[in-house]
Amino acid sequence: MFARFATALAGVWLMAAPEFLDYSKKVSDNDQVVGPLLIAFSIIAMAESTRNVRWMNIVLAAWLFLAPWALAYHNIGALINDYATAVLVTVLSLIRLKKRHRFGGGWPGLWRSDAAHQQEAKRNPL
Amino acid sequence: MQKEDEIPPGWDYNPAAWGQRIPIVILALAGFCIAGYLSLYQFKMIPSVWEPFFGNGSVTILNSPISRVLPVPDAALGAMGYLLDAVAGVIGGKRRWKTMPWIVLLFGFAVGPLGFVSVMLVIFQPVLFEAWCSLCLTSAFISIVMIGPSMDEVLASLQYLRRVKDSGHSLWRGFWGFENVIKKVR
């Protein structure tokens, strides 16, 4: 939970950073697209049944690594800030939320044929 | 109905229990109040809008071209979305993941994909208009907070529909909660 909370704060920082750092419109747009998405995925991943949404944050972090080339920006301050955020988000998103409940095999239980919910239903039919 | 009958097979709690659903409904009602207030301004029924942090930001955002893309102002659509969340959250009993999959999936769609639209609107604020709107951000935050806690119930319904399909019963009938399917599939 702490890791998701910290990732959300990293998203808030990205949204706010253009206020404090000297950014071009292109760079600040990038941060202000990635920031809200980081916050959203982190908050969704706080719930146990959707905890794996944290992987979406790693995708966003990967984009932050690529962005300086993809968008061709030469702002060294922005580059350092984006990379630091990306490293932090990657590390935090590798941390798994503790499992407390059973979910009948979870989302993979929808495409597997012997998931926990199917086994349990077979063991205890109506 | 016995207690264990309420809990989906392979689970250790009931995601459709009232204790799970009521907090989400309360959040939806809070979102409805905020979006409703903002839409009163957009409908020009109140002359100004409360903005504690970003000066003219709310006025800029609430009068932006994006907010008028559809025939109804966007805050009013948001308010209707929250109302749908609340209504779809309340309808049905404690076993609705099984007895009414259609309402659970409607609820999930209203909270999930529709809720995520608010993230897009948050992105538009600085990127297109270089302004922020405090209450719009608050409303978006509420939408996002609702998503995670709602999805477990959707998962339980989808797993049930998977078992309906596996058992050779009509998925369609299972979806609408026909009695003969409910009685035969765990």
Tell me what the structure shows.
The complex is a heterodimer of chains A (126) and B (186). Chain A has helices at residues 2-20, 25-44, 54-70, 76-94, 116-123. With 126 residues, chain A is mainly alpha-helical. Chain A is elongated and about 65 Å long. Chain B is mainly α and 186 residues long. Chain B has 10 helices and no strands. Chain B has helices spanning 3-6, 18-42, 57-62, 74-90, 96-99, 101-111, 113-129, 134-166, 171-176, 179-184. In chain B, helix 2 (18-42) runs antiparallel to helix 4 (74-90), helix 2 (18-42) crosses helix 8 (134-166) and helix 6 (101-111) packs antiparallel against helix 8 (134-166). The two termini of chain B are 13 Å apart. Chain A binds chain B through residues 15, 18, 28-29, 32-33, 36-37, 39-40, 43-50, 53, 101-107, 109-110, 113, 115-121, 124-126, and chain B through 8-13, 15, 116, 119, 122-123, 126-127, 140, 144-145, 147-149, 151-152, 155-156, 158-159, 162-163, 166, 183-186.
